What we know:
Spore Coat Polysaccharide Biosynthesis Protein SpsA, Chain A, four-stranded mixed beta sheet, globular
Amino acid sequence: MTALRLVPTLGPIGGTSVRQPEGIAGETRAPAGLEPLSPGLLNRTSKRKRTPLLHWTGMPDYQHEDLAPKHALTVNFPDDRALKVNFRSRDDLAELASLIGHKDNSNKFAYPYTVEEFSIVVGQSISATRKSLWYPKAEIEHYANKRYISDRPMLPKYPIYVISKGRWKNPLTAMALEECGVPYQIVVEPQEYDKYADVISSDKILVTPFSNLGKGSTPVRNWVWEHSISSGAARHWVLDDNLYMFLRFNRNLKIPVSDGTIFRLAESYVDRYSNVGISGLNYLHFIERKKGDRYPPVRLNTRIYSCILIQNDIPYRWRGKYNEDTDLCIRALKDGWVTMLFNAFLADKTTTMRMPGGNTDELYAGGGWSLGRTTELTPAMQKAVLEKAETLRLMHPDIVEVKQKWGRWHHEVDYSGFRNNALKLADSPGDVFDESDDFGFRLIDVVPKRRRAPRPSRRQNLIDLAEWSGA
């Protein structure tokens, strides 16, 4: 019985996984000579129609396997406990079926003996809380102590702004950027400057000329947009203040990065095109690792949240109190712009309304609350969430519906009408990097420090994190 490897072995990482068809093998560094790219090509996830992603040339290695189970059998025990058994092949299923006496083709089987006896048959220990297992036993490789680091680290060329309010005790995004050694400016209101200055260096703090407008983050987002333009930047990053870390997704693994290279690579890729108005990094929890082969490196013409790169000369500004990021993307898409969501590079964040401060207090609360560890919404919370969803529907009734899912109200946007918003290559391809050694990316072992929110007297905490990430 051969053990199953769920995670591909990480050997030397080099080159890109995108293979060129004959005739354009020499076009691996500069995309300017390639034909315009259909948005359907990058968005396609069907394994039956796998097409080389020509425009991912000159970018990091990006390849995945389908690690999802091909077959499953639910085993029911006399004590009413059920266990799901996953298989990589029909042969594996047939092998176990013969061992336990499962003779039909159904996906359920009533096992007449105890869980302990079943564990002997499959050769695996089964705890009282375990709900599933693989047969044969999976060799699970753990990468919690791994980090990507580049031998040639790069910094972003566009300014990064972190919008923050009421979170000086736990500035997650600032801490994450400090760990990566990425320059940023955190934008705060005047009444909170001293509290933020106790934990973050004053030269990294921008202070708005207004405070407590009761309009959420919209005024400060527009303020940093103008600040970026005045600095001469062509684009700017705007980040929420509840991001834990930044990661690279490759070979079915989502591994944190230890420098700013992925920001620069994302910028470089976006700069290849003249009409990508809004781009950004996808959420970690929106990517299913075992189904990695279903995700293209970037997805076009959809919403961009929380970690956003904006082209400064698009003719829009933030508006409204709720769902302002979705609204901005929809307006741009309706006018023919392209939005670009990176799956190759990810951001991890806290769940909405679970962290005090920010919009949680100013917009949803009315009195100051957050979900904390609970998943139940009070009537006041439900009312606020419904108002948030309805606001977007009223702005875009042609493509937005409000539905109740998972016990709360959500907006649902139909982006299918924008599938033909096609990329246009820029006159100049922008930065051209040598990707022959995968940009110097390599995996290192680290001993992560336990993150603690810096207190007013703990500025050294941020300094320690920065020193650790550079070790």
